[in-house]
Design goal:
- This protein is mainly beta.
- The protein has a single domain, classed as Fumarylacetoacetate hydrolase, domain 2 (Alpha-Beta Complex).
- Helices cover 15% and strands 43% of the residues.
- The protein contains four helices and 17 strands.
- A seven-stranded mixed β-sheet has the order 4-3-14-8-9-11-5, with no helix packed on it. Strands 6-17-16-12-13 form a five-stranded mixed β-sheet, with no helix packed on it.
- It is globular.
- It binds zinc ion.
- The site of zinc ion has 6 residues, from loops.
Length: 209
């Protein structure tokens, strides 16, 4: 099983629940409709990774991620909800499930998680090759963390170690090999997490030359 790091302890999340459309500006950039209830999808434990591997159609979505304990937020981390946008667009057009585009290996990339007392004032920033490309905050979310936790627990059940990826602000884009990303989580202006990733090339299959 894959694990994440919370306060220097290894935890093994059973599942990751993702919110599909939680920032108005991001809904507009993908020409989606504003939902009348939250859009949820789930990534399995096997989707967890800590490396960014560039491949065709791969988009980054930077998200504020919550670690759940006792049906409450215990910690916060920076996460990439990696998406194969070309495949997702095809699946959406046909009304098919999104797993091939959202739940593949290494599609959930997490920083370490740190303990927080409450979610007010949380912000996320993503820099790509030194340029700010995504910025959002809990205040801009359509569905706030308190609502999400209750709603997700009612529908799916929330267990200790589960992670909620709370949706991406506008500014999503392609991951190219060699791109350098810096992700930050702040609370009331104070940096809680500052993490760097370099997008690597996809490894070639072993017997290809
Ligand atoms: Zn997302």
């Amino acid at each position: 099983m894959h694990s994440i790091n919370f306060q220097n302890q290894k935890l093994t999340p059973c599942k990751i629940v993702c919110i599909g459309r939680n920032y108005v500006e991001h809904i507009k950039e993908l020409n989606n409709e504003i939902p009348d209830e939250p859009v949820y999808f789930i990534k399995p434990n096997s989707a967890i990774g800590d490396r960014l591997i560039a491949r065709k159609g791969l988009h980054y979505e930077a998200e504020i991620c919550f670690l759940i304990e006792d049906k409450k937020i215990a910690g916060v981390g920076f996460g990439f909800d990696l998406t194969l946008r070309n495949i997702q667009s095809k699946l959406k057009a046909k009304g098919l499930p999104w797993e091939r585009a959202k739940a593949f290996k290494n599609s959930a990339i997490f920083s370490k998680f740190v303990a927080i007392k409450d979610w007010q004032g949380l912000e996320i920033e993503l820099y790509k090759n030194g340029e700010l490309v995504q910025k959002g905050s809990v205040e801009l979310m359509i569905y706030k963390p308190d609502f999400l936790i209750k709603d997700i627990d009612n529908i799916f059940g929330l267990d200790d170690g589960d992670i909620i990826m709370s949706g991406t602000p506008k500014g999503v884009g392609e991951v190219k090999a060699g791109d350098i990303f810096e992700g930050k989580i702040l609370q009331n202006g104070k940096i809680l997490i500052d993490v760097n990733y370099k997008a690597n090339k996809e490894a070639l299959p072993k017997n290809s030359s």
